[in-house]
Every structure is written in structure tokens, then in C-alpha cells.
Amino acid sequence: MRYQINNQGAYTRKMKIRVFLRWFFYSLSLLLLYSIMSCGAFGRWQPYFIISLCIGVSMREQEFASSVFGIFCGFMLDIAVGTLFGFFAVLLMPFCFLTSLLSRNLLKVNFVNHAIAVAVTVIVSFFMYYLFHYSIWNISGREVIVSSVLFPSFIATVLTAPAMYFLTKFIASKFGLEEDSGIMESVEEATEAEETKKEKNP
Known about the structure:
The chain is mainly alpha-helical. The chain is built from 7 helices and no strands. The radius of gyration is 19 Å and the shape is elongated.
């Protein structure tokens, strides 16, 4: 199996427009979800839509772009939650990178794997949040945070993850991501076949 990291050829003008529109709507979705999270309409059952969004994007985009988007999602999540600025950015960036890498080489892009990736990301993020904001400071009643805030939010995030999966899938398919990838893969396969032919017949 040949592993790939950011193996992308030159874009045509049409492909550049599609890429721009794709990231425009990803960013627009991020702003909309940030607004929803900031208003606190769900109370303690607040889904962390931004985490589900960045994981969904990472399953369809390349590693570097996914990592950068994960950083921006983390910054927006920091503001929405009111935690130390950069805390979730540091956590989401490696998860986005790994999700993109695994999706391009090992995992199928479907809503089950998306939900699993979201669940793992949320568990680790919430654990780190609890550890650095409550546990190490030995705050009294910190167990209540787990049962009344973090656990309900975890359940809500996992349950709403399919919505973010299909949102990113719609944006990606609408603006030709699958078509672009197919074109580039065909070009790569043709190039490899030509190189193999030259090696056999110098």
C-alpha cells in the first residue's frame, strides 16, 4: 500500500474556483455553528458542532489544509466555550491531521467512521479540558462538571455528528471534490504506469 501525504498536482482554473467555493462554505458553516454554540440555546446538552464539522472536513481534505482548518475551528471553539484562547486549537489540529491521513489511506469515508472519530476527539478533548481546568486545581465539586456538563455534551455531539457529516459531504460533492480527486488519481496512475513501462523497456 502506498501512503500519501499532500500528494496533489497542479489545479486548473476551474478546480481552483471549486476549491475556493468549497472552503468558503466550510468557513460559512463554521461561523454559523459558532453562532449557534455561542447563544447557548441547548443548555447543558450543548452539542460541540464545531468538532464534528472539522472532523467531517478532515475526512475529505488533505492533511495540511485539514490541520489549518482544525486550528481555526479550535480558536472559534475557545471563544464559544470561553476557555483559554488556543486550548482547543492545540487539541483539534493533530486530530484533524490524523483523520485526514487515515481517511486517505486506511479508513472509508462514511458516517460511522465519522461518528467514531468525533467520539474519540471529544473524549480526549473533554478529558484534557477537565484535567487542566478542574482536576489539577483540585476544585471542589468538580465531579458535577462531568455528570452535568461534559457527559451530556458528549452524548449530544455524537448524536448530531451525522448532520455535520452529511453537511460536509454535500459541500464536497457539490463543488466537485470527488471529481477532482478522481482526475488527479487517474493522472497519477497513468504517470506511474508510464514510469513502470520505461523501467521495463529502457
